[in-house]
Design a protein that fits this description.
- The relative contact order is 0.27.
- The protein is mainly beta.
- It has two helices and 15 strands.
- The strands form two sheets. Strands 1, 3, 4, 6, 11, 12, 13 and 15 form an eight-stranded antiparallel β-sheet that branches. The chain has a seven-stranded antiparallel β-sheet with strand order 2-5-14-7-8-9-10, with no helix packed on it.
- Strand 3 and strand 4 form a beta hairpin.
């Protein structure tokens, strides 16, 4: 995968630094809001999204917004079924359950990919097959998302799946974080250990670095 100056901010190095705060207190959904409250609950130190079947994607949303950050969390799809994702730099769509913005995708062949939910509606960068080799679809997985300026990194279980530089100057660099439960058949998804570290400064060299080409591609119509 392409390498650029954001590698100096690799998630493994950032993990050892102070400054992380919890986005989920392990007890209740304080600090979060939902379009469909009955879908979301706190249980056993987890955020649980559970549906008997939905006609639309639903999201549990932070009340706060973030711009440059490193986000870390654990998640699992119960029985390996369904599809989910972690929205960031996103916006709630008025009068709708939808959320628009970047998504670190979860499930099916999309684990670890970068999707643009309800906006460009396509995969911006697909995770490489090698990063998904041996993936236990029923187990817990570690996600790391780093967003800094135009640059985005996603790691899945310690394997880097996305290095993406946004070329469109009109795309928001700030927004909410949200957890997704996908439309379709009954499913259940769990999230825990959700913590974030805001990144306050951007190196001048990073701002002036040339943008590498990304590899956008169409996503099958499942959304």
């Amino acid at each position: 995968m392409r390498r650029f100056l954001l590698l100096a901010l690799a998630p493994a190095a950032l993990a050892a630094q102070p400054g992380f705060e919890k986005l989920f207190n392990g007890r209740n959904l304080d600090g979060w809001e939902a379009h469909t409250p009955e879908v979301w609950s706190a249980r056993d130190g987890m955020i649980v999204g559970k549906s008997a079947g939905l006609k639309y994607n639903d999201f549990l949303r932070t009340k706060r917004t973030f711009d440059d950050f490193e986000l870390r969390l654990k998640l699992r799809l119960v029985n390996g079924q369904g599809n989910s994702g972690v929205q960031f730099r996103s916006r709630a769509v008025p009068d709708s359950p939808a959320v628009s913005g970047y998504q670190a995708d979860v499930g099916q062949q999309y684990w670890g990919s970068l999707y643009d939910e309800a906006r460009r509606k396509k995969i911006l960068l697909q995770s490489p097959p090698a990063a998904l080799a041996g993936l236990d679809t029923n187990g817990w997985h570690d996600y790391v998302i780093v967003a800094r300026g135009n640059d985005i990194i996603i790691e899945l279980d310690g394997r880097r799946t996305v290095e993406y530089r946004e070329a469109d100057p009109e795309i928001d660099q700030t927004g909410i974080i949200a957890l997704q439960i996908h439309s379709g058949p009954p499913m259940e998804v769990h999230f825990k250990d959700i913590r974030i570290r805001e990144l306050k400064e951007r190196p001048a060299a990073e701002a002036s670095a040339p943008a590498p080409a990304s590899r956008p591609g169409a996503k099958p119509a499942r959304r």
